[in-house]
Amino acid sequence: MSKFVLLLGGTVHVTDRLRHLIAGARVLAADGGIAHAQALGLEPELWLGDFDSTSPALAERYAHVPRSVFPAAKDMTDGELALNEAYRLGATEVILCGAFGGERTDHTLLHLTMATRHAAEGRKIILSSGSEEAHPLVAGDYAFDFADGTVFSIVAFTSLRGLFIHGARWPLENMELSFGSSLTVSNAVCGNLHVSLRSGNAVLIAAP
Questions:
Q1: How far apart are CA 125 and CA 131, in angstroms?
Q2: Are residues 47 and 119 in the same domain?
Q3: What is its EC number (predicted)?
């Protein structure tokens, strides 16, 4: 298994869980996301992007890191460039670190939908800020290691069929959920959380 962590430009809170999640991973940085490297104790092997959000101080500090430079007028975000490069290098598991927050809500939404698309193609991908963690849900069965009381939500990107939630304060059995429903927002772990889904695309967002 080849695990990669991608440093993105959103918010990062360094936690023990995040350190454990990224341990042993190869590291790619997307533009200003390299700002998180020092706090996480990481050294990127490649720095990608158009570098429009890289400060002179960061450029000087990480001048030794190999760069892959793209024009600002390109047809994908720096984060997607980094993700494509991770898969080109053989990634079997990817952690998008810094995928939430920051100044660009559109980028946050893109990271969630982009991750779900790749999950539907059979790839393992997790998004984290340290204080929040997101797991794409496509047809299949899932087990999570969240502690009792952890608040979580399932946000549907399509209509969902055959949704089961076990090990939660409010379990569900074979539920159909319409796109845009808030029924599965603000649940909490009670025991060992298991989720299964027969069809549809969604994301589970937790605050571990």
A1: 17
A2: yes
A3: 2.7.6.2
